[in-house]
Amino acid sequence: MNYWLFKTEPGCFSFDNLKNRPNMTEPWDGVRNFQARNYLRDTVKVGDLVLFYHSNIPQPAIVGLATVVREGYPDTTALDPEGEHFDPKSSPANPIWYMVDVRYLKEMTRQVSLEQIKANPLLEAMPLVNRSRLSIQPVTPEQGEIILAMGGTSLP
DNA sequence: GCCAACGTTGGC
DNA sequence: GCCAACGTTGGC
């Protein structure tokens, strides 16, 4: 089981959206960055734990946990000319972009803010600290466990 | 709203 | 293949 950090702008898709449909799977689509795409396509596996991060708000923070329920498959939003994630270079034969499906696990007892993460020397190697723009980030088990402890949250 | 970081595009 | 221009992200 690997840990990941998935970033989202809550105005676009929030942890509450996930929490309100606890038994549903949700596609993590719209990722349009090659490094993040590679993770989604090749490395993210069923059963991996997702630290759900809210970005672009006054208090960016890890707010909850999700789990991966389907591994990388072509992102259909890239094929929809009407959608905002349309990419004319993608096609069914050459999809370019990939997504995974996730499901709600639990809310953090306490949110773990970016400020707290930056203040913890044990977490300074996280991409979030110095490569904040990457939207799908690997998290080491050590980092993951520290964050769960900071959030007063254990694995379900 | 500003701006730094960084990714992408396209001319050469 | 280099690099300047440009666009986007996201913290502040």
TrEMBL record:
Ranges of residues in domain EVE: 2-150
InterPro entries assigned to the protein according to its UniProt record, in alphabetical order: 5hmC_binding, EVE_domain, PUA-like_sf, THYN1-like_EVE
CDD domains named in the record: EVE
Entry protein name: EVE domain-containing protein
